[in-house]
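Q&A log
Question type: sequence-to-structure
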Amino acid sequence: MNIFRHCAFASALALLAGCASLPASHKGASMFSQPLISTHRDADDLLTGGLGLAGLQSIIPPAFGDAEHPTAAELRRRALWSNWRGIADLAPGGGYATLYGSVATVPGREFSALATLAGARQPHRVLLQLPDGFDPRKRCVVVAASSGSRGIYGAIAVAGAWGLPRGCAVAYTDKGNGTDYFDLDAGQGVALDGRVAAANGNTALAFKPASASGSGVAYKHAHSQDNPEADWGRHVKQAAQFALATLNAQLPQQAPFTFENTRVIAVGISNGGGAVLRAAEDSEPWLDAVVAGEPNIYAQGPDARSLYDYSTEAALLMPCALPQLGIPAMPGLDAKCAALKMRGVLAGDTLDAQQKDALAKLHAAGWTDASLRAGSISVAFDLWRAVAVGYASAYGRYAFDAHPCGYRYSAQNVDTSPRAATPVERAAWWADAAGIPPGAGVGIVDPQPMTDMGLTGMQCLRNLWTGDSADAQRVRKGIADTRATLPRAGLPVVVIHGRSDGLVPQAFSSAPYVAMAKAAGRNDVRYWQVDNAQHFDAFLALPPMAAAYLPLLPYVYSALDRVDAYLDGKAALPIDAVIHTVPRMGKPLAEGNLAMPH
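Response status: OK
Response body:
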């Protein structure tokens, strides 16, 4: 059984005061809360919580003994299960843990804290996994940011699976996002150990909105009023600082651990990939290498587009465009396309003409057929609206009850009407949620009637990018604050992106970023473009997806291998490559399918 306890080791608390005992690389570090330690041995471990591959593959989540009051250990195991399944393709035949990746049993300890950036209203989570087999000779720290809006374990399948079996410590940040939902009806949020606690009690919460009165659900990414994306690079650095402070306290015989004598490799995918690229901008040489998979990055240059721009565009146009690519129409499409024509969004007097106009508009905006086909996943799962609604709040720094288009969040009845959450639902949010609704029993409440088909709200969201209102200017200012600049000169950076990515198309994100970097002489930036890879490895568990697409994680792990060998002086950096993969077509994944560059 895991043992959770508060820790008062002097070196970690020294961080709080910024005292002279800190190494030079920690000067000016922001505050961390008193860390929480958990031990993971004996039918438990750092990487899978004792579940192993079979437990992670199970469609039934790890059970809670008391559904209303799960223990911290139960919540952690469930969070590991949900985050593994949300990121990796664990299905039989998919090759995980046989052809690539690891679910090795890694005993060790975890150190968890809340961290605060100067000027931020809300804390964010940092966590260090220190394996018993930490290699003090290599002195390796892998620092990772969660993908999407996921919680603190959101990069476990990316960084933990690579670093922990190699004897590296692995540091994580939720980068100001995460699953620390706040129930406004009950006045309850989430404590450091993942359990629900009252806002008016003595327990510190990972997120508490500025005004805790109201109805529904608030969550940190949208409602912290910090625009966390603007600070993702700082979040990554702070996780690395927490890692070194903890290593100094726990391994005094090998101390001091500093950025000068400890290898630090940053890795992330999706939003996590964008976060580590933002960390690469720091002029201080604390990072040794960066690996970014399918990064959500808003670079400089004429082809760069923000996620908010193309997600609101896709939400309006993509459902009507997809049937022209042979993809079955969503229910009610005829009426939706006709309504968009009446609103002046689409042209054409017939459904076919309206669909062709939607496709032509997307093509003109830079969408490829490959990204549109994969983007159908986001249409089916309502991801475009989810992104647009939540990110509008985040960029504009709006409170939970002040969304410029009137949206809010709540538990919902079958007819989507809002209701109060139950204690069982609330208790599981931290472990089960992906960090952005809908999901885990929390939905988006549209102020318009269902007969509106969501179009008024979606046009409102689009106008926050294209319009001139005060709200539009406020949202665009927040987006501008997230724009990337160049990585530090001489820093090895490997960017990997699927050429069929339909959520973060490479044409709008990684391609402009790499072009910007290379134009400025950043010759240590390398780019792998992977044929037949889309954004979600986890969806490859669906047979039609597995037949058409390959996973991206093998290339992320390979890039980590390459930069690690480069830093050891044993190999050159990988060269730019367009990787021509071979789809599985229903067969088990084999090395020949991946066509891994050598």
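Response note: The longest helix spans residues 232-250.
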